[in-house]
UniProtKB/TrEMBL annotation:
Domain Molybdopterin dinucleotide-binding: 641-748
Superkingdom of origin: Bacteria
CDD domains reported in the protein's UniProt record: MopB_CT_ydeP (cd02787), MopB_ydeP (cd02767)
Annotated family: Belongs to the prokaryotic molybdopterin-containing oxidoreductase family.
One Pfam family from the record: Molydop_binding
Full protein name: Protein YdeP
Residue ranges annotated for the Molybdopterin oxidoreductase domain, each copy included: 113-475
Cofactor or coenzyme needed: Mo-bis(molybdopterin guanine dinucleotide); [4Fe-4S] cluster
PANTHER family (alphabetical): PROTEIN YDEP, RESPIRATORY NITRATE REDUCTASE
Membrane spanning stretches: none
Native source species: Microbulbifer aestuariivivens
InterPro entries named among the record's database cross-references: Asp_de-COase-like_dom_sf, MopB_CT_YdeP, MoPterin_dinucl-bd_dom, Mopterin_OxRdtase, Mopterin_OxRdtse_a_bac, Prok_molybdopt-oxidoreductase, YdeP_MopB
Keywords: 4Fe-4S, Iron, Iron-sulfur, Metal-binding, Molybdenum, Oxidoreductase
Length: 758
């Protein structure tokens, strides 16, 4: 690593990703957060058959779950939860909330695990301890006084299946379908787009498919940081000489070269394997143009030499091919090149690889979904796959990389503002009530309702709602206007401090901790990105005797709020088998739930599209017809750049583990703007200059002043800054209309030297 003489905290990272650097980072994290021995044994239990599911990401585990998979960022997620630091009422009560608000997000969570329920006292401007039952009774009285349309129930994707199921049951028994959730900021485009194309809102691949794939297109995700256990899979593919084509505006080190900490020889020799066989540095928001270009070139290959498309599959299984092909043929190469930032020749080489491969997987993340047309983007990826029958065939398929470790499970459990009639009927029948059938609010809907006063109470099962959402300038004051906020969480964060008329923090146990209820020790279950459902059992003693499980908190709150519902909340709380029996009755695919999770590795939920059964209205897979090439509100102005808001290597969403971003060469700071050398030159800027960034959308005034611009290997036209800080540049009106996902990866911005005349 070499120091940058000019810009403090910037270094050039020239090694491969992974390797000893990853081991060292893990050792430091364990030392800072935990007792060494306990830390080591806890990490060894991660993702083991009798252990707990890693809260780090939703990548699945191999079938033969025996060997421990080393994972730096999984270790950070685990030790951050299992830390020995404690945010006791005494510690929190030393500060007024106004003082706590001056701490940054890292400092707030660094206070440690919450140990006792707290209530805000406006007279002292402090959080103070409260008894659990008093908290439940007070919250219940306020919920009873509000109407269900005024209350919103947020879920962040760590909540277990059992907690999520009970939570949606509580909200619906209360009368609300207002379910904003983290998926609304993340993979909602997948949940909306895949059903339109394939009849199912989940990925079609299993882990075994990666062993048989002949080509991988990895688009808009950064697995070295965000899905680190995927690196083992990519490493194996690379060693099998499977081409891995990456589409990403920014050079991400782990997608270039990786040393696997599981491979002794590589660790000893310092050797690494290349990951991307071809790295296409397209412009942010240039994916649709690039994919349309690849499809265009594939169609041209079919015309010139034939035998490229899977015509039998297209005829038997799909609908809309001709309209799609005509639309693509009408798109000009000039436009494709201009908007993608890639050359025709380069896209044609990818088309050749695609034409040659008998089994292709496309994996994708936030680079695809967080755009004005995120849902259309997802459908376009399906179009490319359908051309060669790459859905429902071994070694092929679509692989959305889900975010939170159980976000997919939350959805399966009914956390959705638009529940299906079948789901509501089954829920009502099982619990003898009439659930509301109206469409409720999603995350942006809740924000809007908070601003205009329609929403009066926000209950949060985890997460950091206000910091994750766009438009903090509107969102923060709107939180303070609410009548009631309730946060179920493990650590203190900013959303907890945006206090309303009545605010409560209810501390819960995490995945790593034992969960003992009246009937004995409990397991919870989660669903990974590939629809595998399995049990998770924590082993550590809870962070405090005064914290409860998420299930217990939801059940106790429901019992206090809805004493006449006829639902045996406390019975469900006392024995999670009963919750799973209810899930089995309500949700298809969970038959014999309790029995099936006793098998190591659990079971896979039915995925009709993986068997080429298309649950679309036409009964076929549907090609889409992507109009135009622009993914985001057009700018067509050389002075306007596209801002991608990014995660560093040392953060988990709004949780900032440290100020380092090792692979991108940034240390001890986050106040930087990544820019290409070409854009630096065209903007008359130098590496290290102080710049101001402002959003370039009509009617919007949003600024982020005082960032240090650093030169980075990335596509011209695109700039990057860290999420969540850069949310001050993302307007809440800038989102994908089909899914409601904010366009966090493509905000048009102007960049100018700080102090320069505007
Ligand atoms: N350690 C860790 N793990 C995590 C998380 C975390 O914060 N930390 N978060 C979890 C969650 S909730 C999620 S959703 C996932 C997120 O995982 P990712 O989907 O990897 O999300 P991001 O880090 O936001 O980055 C996306 C990547 O997309 C690229 N990109 C940006 N814009 C574009 C574009 O227009 N086109 C293309 N092709 N690429 C683009 C960026 O350069 C970056 O490499 O990770 C999960 N896992
Ligand atoms: N600009 C920009 N904004 C973004 C994104 C982006 O790429 N750019 N990404 C978006 C995405 S993909 C997502 S998913 C959202 C994330 O939004 P959220 O899911 O709301 O945010 P997190 O930061 O994951 O939530 C962290 C908090 O969760 C609590 N917590 C941790 N573990 C547990 C647990 O086991 N139980 C409970 N009850 N609480 C727990 C802790 O109190 C912690 O402070 O942010 C979105 N916002
Ligand atoms: Mo996410």
């Amino acid at each position: 690593m070499s120091e940058d003489k000019k810009v403090p905290g910037v270094k050039t990272y020239d090694a491969a990703a992974g390797g000893w650097g990853a081991l060292k980072a893990t050792a430091i994290t364990v030392r800072n957060e935990m007792d060494l021995l306990e830390g080591a044994t806890t990490l060894l239990r991660t993702n083991q058959p009798t252990g707990f599911d890693c809260p780090g990401c939703a990548w699945p585990d191999p079938d033969h779950k025996s060997t421990f998979q080393f994972c730096e960022n999984g270790a950070k997620a685990v030790t951050w939860e299992a830390t020995k630091k404690r945010a006791t009422p005494e510690l929190i009560g030393q500060h007024t909330v106004s003082e706590l608000l001056k701490m940054n997000d890292h400092e707030l969570e660094e206070l440690g695990r919450l140990t006792h329920p707290l209530v805000y006292n406006p007279e002292t401007d402090r959080y103070q301890p409260i008894d659990w039952q008093a908290a439940f009774d007070q919250i219940a009285a306020q919920l009873q006084a509000l109407s269900p349309e005024q209350v919103d129930f947020y879920t962040s994707g760590r909540a277990s299946n059992e907690a999520s199921f009970l939570y949606q049951l509580f909200a619906r028994a209360y009368g609300s379908n207002n379910f904003p959730d983290c998926s609304n900021m993340c993979h909602e485009c997948t949940s909306v787009g895949l059903p339109m194309s394939l009849g199912m809102g989940k990925g079609s691949v299993s882990l075994a498919d990666f062993d048989k794939a002949e080509l991988l297109l990895s688009i808009g995700h950064n697995p070295g940081t965000n899905h680190p256990r995927m690196m083992g899979t990519l490493h194996d593919m690379s060693k099998r000489n499977v081409p891995i084509v990456v589409l990403n505006p920014l050079k991400e080190r782990a997608l270039e070269r990786f040393t696997s900490p599981q491979e002794k020889l590589e660790m000893i020799t310092g050797r690494s394997v290349p990951i991307a066989s071809d790295y296409l540095m397209l412009r942010a928001g240039g994916d649709a143009a690039a994919i349309k270009g690849i499809i265009k070139a594939v169609l041209a290959l079919e015309d010139s030499r034939g035998g490229v498309l899977d015509k039998a599959f297209i005829a038997e299984h799909t609908h809309g091919f001709e309209a799609m092909a005509e639309n693509i043929r009408a798109t000009s190469w000039d436009d494709i090149e201009k908007i993608s930032g890639l050359s025709r020749a380069h896209l044609e080489t990818v088309a050749e690889l695609y034409a040659k491969s008998n089994a292709t997987i496309i994996s994708y993340g936030m680079g695809i979904t967080q755009h004005n047309r995120g849902t259309d983007n997802v459908r376009l990826l399906c179009d490319l796959l359908l051309l060669k029958g790459n859905i429902g065939k071994p070694g092929a398929g679509i692989c959305p990389l889900r975010g939170h470790s159980n976000v997919q499970g939350n959805r399966t459990m009914g956390i959705t503002e638009k529940p299906s009639a079948d789901f509501l009927a089954a829920l009502g029948k099982t619990f003898h009530f009439s659930p509301p059938s109206n469409h409720g609010r999603d995350a942006l809907g809740t924000l809007e309702a908070m601003v205009n006063g329609d929403c009066q109470a926000l209950i949060c099962l985890g997460g950091n709602f206000a910091v994750a959402l766009p438009d903090p300038e509107q969102c923060y004051p709107a939180m303070a206007k609410l009548a009631l906020t309730v946060h179920v969480g493990t650590k203190l964060n900013r959303s907890h401090l945006l206090v309303s008329k009545a605010s409560y923090i209810l501390p819960c146990r995490g995945r790593t901790e034992q969960d003992i209820q009246a009937s004995g020790p409990q397991a919870i279950t989660v669903e990974d990105s590939m629809s595998m459902v399995h049990a998770s059992v924590g082993k550590l003693a809870p962070a405090s005797p005064d914290i409860k499980s998420e299930v217990a908190i939801v059940a106790d709150l429901a019992a206090a709020t809805l004493p006449d519902s006829g639902i045996d909340w406390l019975g469900l709380r006392d024995d999670y088998h009963k919750i799973r029996d209810a899930i089995a009755q309500v949700i298809p695919g969970f038959e014999n739930f309790n029995e099936r999770i006793t098998h190591p590795g659990g079971f896979r939920l039915p995925l009709p599209h993986a068997d080429r059964v298309w649950k679309t209205p036409s009964g076929k897979a549907e090609f889409s017809c992507y109009k135009g090439l622009e993914e985001d509100a057009a700018t067509h102005n050389a002075s306007i750049l596209r801002l991608m808001t990014l995660r560093s290597h040392d953060q988990y969403n709004t949780t900032i583990y440290s100020y380092d971003d090792r692979y991108r060469g940034v240390f001890g700071r986050r106040d930087v703007l990544f820019m290409s050398p070409q854009d630096l030159a065209s903007h008359g800027l130098e590496h290290g200059d102080l710049v101001d960034v402002e959003t370039a959308l009509e009617g919007v005034t949003m600024r982020y002043p005082g960032l240090t611009v650093i030169s980075h290997d990335m596509a011209p036209g695109s700039v990057g800054a860290y999420y969540p800080e850069a949310n001050c540049l993302v307007p809440r009106s800038f989102y994908d209309a089909q899914s409601g996902v904010p366009s966090y990866k493509s905000v048009p911005v102007r960049v100018s030297k700080s102090g320069a005349a505007q």
